[in-house]
Amino acid sequence: MIEAGAIERRVAELAAEIDRDYAGSEGLVVIGVLKGAVFFVTELTKRMTVPLTIDFFQTSSYGSGTSAGEVRIKRDIDLSVRGRDVLLVEDIVDTGWTLRTILDLFRFRGARSVRLCALLDKHEAREVDVPIDYCGFRIGREFVVGYGLDFSERYRNLPYIAVVEFPDEEQSS
Ligand code: 5GP
């Protein structure tokens, strides 16, 4: 769906934009959402020059789906966000429940500002409103893998984004 070169170019553009916006900020904390955002966070921050620290956060939703609406914290960050500018970096925003929960949590903990950077935006699937300040690409409702995104833990290491075709869907359409 999205070639490696196109992702690299877009990540560089986003890094430049974020760098400009945070010029002068002394306490930027970049928080990646595990595991899907690992590649995105590293490639993005490698291209940024503002002083920053990096941390990771891991969630899982209750039940079997990704959109149960209740989000559980599996791994919390080590760093304090009180009085700091926070940039949350996520692989993909689908229903929005995961990010809604994390954004609210960091605001509650006293972050000075909280902004969101997402590589992919499944805009049509949104159930709760989450403003994406920096968006890589808008996509449809397809299930995608690669560049950190998995299907049963596989395909994260693909350097591009690919669509998974499910046989059942092909038969029914
Ligand atoms: P949300 O809470 O926005 O519904 O879900 C966000 C999470 O669902 C993402 O961090 C990701 O783990 C998972 N997700 C949503 N859509 C996709 C997709 O197309 N492919 C993969 N691999 N994961 C997805």
Structure description:
- The protein has four helices and eight strands, in the order αβαβββαββββα.
- The strands form two sheets. Strands 3-2-1-4-5-6 form a six-stranded mixed sheet, with helices on both faces.
- Helix 1 (4-21) crosses helix 2 (38-46).
- It has 173 residues and is α/β, with parallel strands linked by helices.
- Strand 4 (85-93), helix 3 (97-108) and strand 5 (113-121) form a beta-alpha-beta unit.
- The longest helix has 18 residues, at 4-21.
- The protein is 26% helix and 28% strand.
- The mean pLDDT is 92.
- It has a single domain (4-143), classed as Rossmann fold (3-Layer(aba) Sandwich).
- The chain has helices at residues 4-21, 38-46, 97-108, 167-172; strands at 28-34, 52-61, 71-75, 85-93, 113-121, 134-138, 144-145, 162-163.
- The structure holds guanosine-5'-monophosphate.
- The site of guanosine-5'-monophosphate has 19 residues, from strand 4, helix 3 and strand 7.
How helical, in percent, are the residues?
25-40%
**Ligand set:** guanosine-5'-monophosphate
Distance between the termini: 20 Å
Number of helices: 4
Strand content: 25-35%
CATH class (first level) name: Alpha Beta
Largest sheet, spatial ordering of strands: 3-2-1-4-5-6
Radius of gyration: 16 Å
Structural class, please?
A: alpha/beta
Low-confidence residue ranges: none
What general outline do the C-alpha atoms trace?
globular
- Provide mean pLDDT, rounded: 92
Number of domains: 1
Biggest sheet details: 6 strands, mixed
CATH topology: Rossmann fold
What's the total count of β strands? Answer: 8
Please state the second-level CATH architecture: 3-Layer(aba) Sandwich
